[in-house]
Structures are given as C-alpha cells and as structure tokens.
Model the fold of this input.
Amino acid sequence: MTNKMSGRNLEKAIKASGMKKSEVARAKGIAPETLSRIISGKFGMNASDAEEFARILKCSPSQILFERKPIEIFGTAMRTSNNVSGNIKVKDASEKRVLLYNSYNFSDDVVCIRRENPAQRSHIDGMLYFFSNRPIQNTYVDERCLSKKCVVKLKTNEIHICILYQTGDTKYRIHDSYNPDILYDNVEIQWASRITWECLDPIGEGFEEVD
Done:
C-alpha cells in the first residue's frame, strides 16, 4: 500500500473523529508539520504508527493501513403489503452504480442488497444483505444455501431473499425469510447465493455511499 493511500485514510479517520489535526499531532507526540507530511504521503507509516493513530482516533488500524474496497449495491428489496419478501429490483446497466465504502476487508466478489420501503417504514429499512456474486456470474446454486437465508433467482427471473429447500434434483421450495409462508414450491431456479452477513445499522457500522 502506498504512503499516499495510508495518508488519505488517516486524514479521513481524523475528520470522522472530530479532532483537529493539531490535537492528533500532539497526542501522537509529533509536530503538526510531520503529521501533514504523513497525510500527504511524503512520510511513510508503519504498523506501530497505525495502531497508535487508531488508539487516538478510536478506530481500527485497518481503517488507516488498508485500502477500502467498494461494495456495489446489487439491488433493492421491498416488502409487500402482506409483509412477505417482495421481488428484488436489480439495477440495470443504464442506471448509475451505487457503491458503499467501509473499513471491513470484504473479498472482491461480495455485493449487497439494500432493503427499502418508503411507503411502510420499519426498523429494517436500510439494512444491508451481503453475499457473493460468483453464483450469479457462473449461474449455479451454492449448496451452502440449503436451509439457510439466501438470495435466489427463479427461472421466471424473480429474485427473492428467502430460505431455500431442495425438493428434487432441480426443484426447490422457497420460504419467506421472515415468515414461515411458502412462497413457491417445486420451482426451478437459475442461481442462489448464501447471505453471509446482515447489517441492520449501516450508518452505525460506518458505511457511506459514494459516487
């Protein structure tokens, strides 16, 4: 990682902390000019420096040391009037890509779905579901999806967040992820990817949307 990248990360962490650069420099025991050179990339930073800055700024050393990878929002999930998981709207090629940044070190294949329902506000609005896009790109059902919460695309092109059960060699039963209701039975699906993490409070976890 370049000095400039770690310097930019440090500057963002200082801004997020609400501290002044002079306060950070004083707490670190360095001159403000030295801090400015670290931020600009003229001076390097080692792991010990990152740990000390992290302690001062109340963040993790990884937020300072590592490049933040963008997570693309694959689509939007909205709940229907009868409170079951509705069809997920996927962004098409003509729509602007929406990216989220966070200090978590996600693998390159991870994407997410954001839950929204302006008409019926609830505590889960805005939450994020993270999953791998490999089953999407290679069109297969990840066997880890069975009996687990996952993202599924049916042969009819509908996409759902659901619990998946196999009923035959190529047939599946789909349950709503929040209710025991059976949404579909003995249906064929194009792909399924297991949800690896749900984030109920993206803002609290430090996610920010960027252009």
